Amino acid sequence: MSYAYYPGCTLHSSARDYDQSLKAICSLLGIQLEEIDDWNCCGATAAPSVDPDLALTLVLRNLARAEK
Q: Does the structure show a pLDDT above 90 at 66?
């Protein structure tokens, strides 16, 4: 079983331990995670206060990438 995986900026940096734990458990369960190709930051920390449309666009782009 394979799933699209969006780690976001945090799981590649400050929450790296969560990323490693998730991958270890998924491996034990036979779940394959495929990182979404060319994902972008979701903008959750700053984008909504700067430009709400930008915040939605960032999220929608990631969802479109995951669909592929």
A: yes
